[in-house]
Amino acid sequence: MTNCTPFFVWLGAISGSPLRDTLQEDVLTGRIIGGHEADPHSWKWQVSLQIAYPDYPGYYSHICGGTLITGKWVMTAAHCFKGSTYRVVLGEHDLLQEDGFLVKSLLPVPHFSYDIALLRLSSPAYDNGFVELGLLPSEGDILPNDYPCYITGWGATSGNVPDRLQEVMMPIVDHKICSQDDWWGSQAKVTMICAGGDGVRAGCSGDSGGPLNCYKDGHWQVHGIVSFGLVPYCNTYKKPTVFTRVSAYVDWIRNVSCLVPAR
């Protein structure tokens, strides 16, 4: 990859499909860098958003992460959607084993001012012992610099594409730092959260839409949605992973999920 030039991209990429061998030629087809396998079913609100392939009838492949926030709604990144057919896998750990269950999805409701979408499920999720709802933070809640949070997702690590959910702790980088010129500069908006940037730990392509999990007030809350980073060198120093800040959209999330019927 010596001829590659780092560039700013959304972190949505396909992994775990019949196209895996081809995609791995791109080196970073989806990874949490510097992390390790999560304990099975320790992040019960994590979902796998999967896309159908026209050339492989009946086959779906993981493309993005997401968070189950009600029995009928999944929160993810708006840029994950390209007008194809999707399904959601709930309660999963190993994508090669059927220990979770599938729910077909309906059209997403994106928020056009930034990278967040709500996905309606065609049938309600239910608790099979492996599924819980992700809790949202309070409206406008801002975490302090160095606050420890976890990013979770499926994807490549050290050149491989594991099928088991990965996790890594990444400290918050507050907006004042992340928006400095030698960090993300003006690309870091107040409606975003930055985390990582130590040159070791990072989210990368394929982790898009997944949660930034932060323990606060006695329980886990989902404070971020994986949005973008520097590719192909996602763990570049002073280029932390950037998330949509959920607390900036709590009112919109509640309005949409309550007012739009999920049938």
TrEMBL record:
CDD domains: Tryp_SPc. It holds the Pfam family Trypsin. SUPFAM superfamilies: Trypsin-like serine proteases. GO terms for molecular function: serine-type endopeptidase activity. GO terms for cellular component: extracellular space. InterPro entries: Peptidase_S1_Elastase_sf (IPR050850), Peptidase_S1_PA (IPR009003), Peptidase_S1_PA_chymotrypsin (IPR043504), Peptidase_S1A (IPR001314), Trypsin_dom (IPR001254), TRYPSIN_HIS (IPR018114), TRYPSIN_SER (IPR033116). Residues 32-258 form the Peptidase S1 domain. It comes from the Eukaryota. Transmembrane segments: none annotated. Keywords: Disulfide bond, Hydrolase, Protease, Serine protease, Signal, Zymogen. One of its GO terms (biological process) is proteolysis. PANTHER family: CHYMOTRYPSIN-LIKE ELASTASE FAMILY MEMBER (PTHR24257), CHYMOTRYPSIN-LIKE ELASTASE FAMILY MEMBER 3B (PTHR24257:SF22). This is Peptidase S1 domain-containing protein.
